[in-house]
Specification:
It contains nine helices and six strands. The chain is of the alpha/beta class. Bound molecules: adenosine-5'-diphosphate and magnesium ion.
């Protein structure tokens, strides 16, 4: 099942926020989601302590370069999505985490200079391809975009990145109080109080659109329903002896 990773070597780029918003929305849609907290500061795991239990949503702490591969392998078997929140800095954990991903999202705040932290991630992805022949799909995901930014300004940023051959998600994560408040409240955005948080509905709409787009790049494989499968198997079994008998006659 898809492993989607949020990476930017700069702290404060918006990785953890976007990872939580995406993981929360996927869980809300009924997917089994495991979120890996690979940040040694364990923000997400500490936050989980206060979070009301969300069905099918688990947070796994204490991920490091030594255990990330096995942990992801195990979690993939039991979950529809594995969402990885990587720490800042250029570390062996970053390289391993990127290499184990099906799709890497690089949160970048508008055209600000944390794009440099994003560029470091893009460089590592390039090296994985050229030196190790490992191709990991990736997209820049704009975040903390002002709700009053003009479409034209946003298009200019996207155009600039596209010129460098970098794919950019069409849906940015807007700067919203809800995305900050979820940390203070220790909940996912859907559990916030709409009376107390301004523009909560807009924050939820934004999360929906972002996940709609992300799910196109990292779709969950469709399982053949058990009934159809067993019917097909039963049919095949039933037909086999007849074929064998016919074949024997022919021979
Ligand atoms: N879309 C957003 N709207 C409002 N605040 C945001 C948004 N994205 C990130 N932030 C805030 O920016 C800060 C850094 O974000 P965080 O996700 O912790 O970054 P990182 O994980 O890359 O270090 C946090 O205080 C967070 O609440
Ligand atoms: Mg973080």
């Amino acid at each position: 099942m898809p492993v989607i990773t949020f990476a930017n070597t700069k702290g404060g780029a918006g990785k953890t926020t976007m990872a939580l918003v995406v993981a929360g929305e996927l869980a809300k849609r009924g997917f089994r989601v495991a979120m890996l907290d690979a940040d040694p500061q364990q923000w997400v795991s500490r936050w989980m302590v206060r979070m009301a239990k969300v069905p099918k949503f688990s947070i796994i702490a204490d991920i490091d370069a030594d255990n990330i591969e096995k942990t992801i392998k195990d979690l993939k078997k039991r979950n529809d999505y594995v969402v990885v929140d990587l720490p800042g800095g250029v570390t062996p954990l970053l390289a391993k985490g990127l290499g184990l991903s099906d799709h890497v999202f690089v949160p970048v705040q508008g055209c600000a200079l944390d794009a440099a932290g994003g560029a470091q991630v893009l460089d590592i992805l390039k090296k994985l391809k050229s030196e190790c022949d490992i191709h990991i799909a990736h997209s820049v995901a704009l975040t903390r975009v002002s709700s009053i930014i003009t479409t034209r300004a946003l298009l200019a940023v996207k155009g600039m990145l596209a010129q460098q051959g970098v794919h950019v998600l069409a849906t940015p994560l807007i700067e919203r109080a809800a995305y900050r408040d979820m940390f203070d409240a220790g909940t996912l955005i859907d559990a916030l109080d709409p009376e107390a948080v301004s523009n909560l509905a807009k924050a939820q709409d934004n999360a929906r659109l972002l996940v709609d787009e992300i799910a196109q790049f990292a779709p969950v494989p469709v399982k053949v329903p058990k009934t159809a499968k067993s019917t097909a198997t039963a049919k095949a079994k039933a037909e086999t002896p007849r074929k064998t008998a016919a074949a024997k006659k022919a021979a």
